[in-house]
Design a protein that fits this description.
Blueprint lengths: L1 H13 L10 H19 L3 H5 L2 E8 L6 E2 L1 H13 L3 E13 L2 E11 L9 E13 L2 E11 L7
């Protein structure tokens, strides 16, 4: 009995997972759906919906720029990006994984950068979203991406 009690207590102590906290297929699907909604909002220039998946204290790491912190600063960034002619965003999510309330999604992106009146430079690269489950909703906490192409003028 004593050995059984010790084994049971040890197993319980080593198990940090709480019921309902394991990351599963439902979470992966929710994150993929959130990413699809983000792309749709970006391509329709709906800034409110572009920002909706982000946590209030998000850390945003765009290429060739300083870190942007918080939704207000991100709004200015997205306003400028979309006004500059960015469009036709495509995200190819190749991996979604997580544990408990933390997850990441990574993959590749493509988008056009200039207005339709001129031939658009096409950009492609990779991205990483780090998400946290808050009130049963997955929110982007950290976003980073960079281009596979050399900067113009290099």
């Amino acid at each position: 009995m004593f050995i059984l009690a010790v084994v049971s207590l040890t197993a319980a102590a080593c198990s940090n997972a709480k019921p309902g906290e394991e990351f599963g297929m439902k979470d992966q699907a929710a994150i993929r759906q959130r990413t699809e909604a983000f792309v749709k909002a970006f391509n329709t220039k709906d800034i409110a919906q572009v920002l909706s998946p982000y946590a209030e204290n998000s850390v945003f790491m765009p290429p060739n720029q300083p870190i942007i912190r918080g939704k207000d600063a991100m709004k200015m960034y997205y306003d400028d990006l979309l006004k500059s002619g960015a469009r036709n965003l495509r995200l190819n999510v190749t991996e979604v994984s997580g544990h408990g309330p933390l997850a990441y999604a990574s993959g590749s992106y493509e988008m056009d950068l200039k207005p339709a009146s001129s031939p658009p430079p096409h950009d492609r690269g990779k991205f990483l979203f780090v998400l946290r489950k808050m009130n049963e909703t997955w929110r982007y906490e950290y976003t980073m991406w960079n281009s596979d192409l050399a900067q113009s003028g290099d």
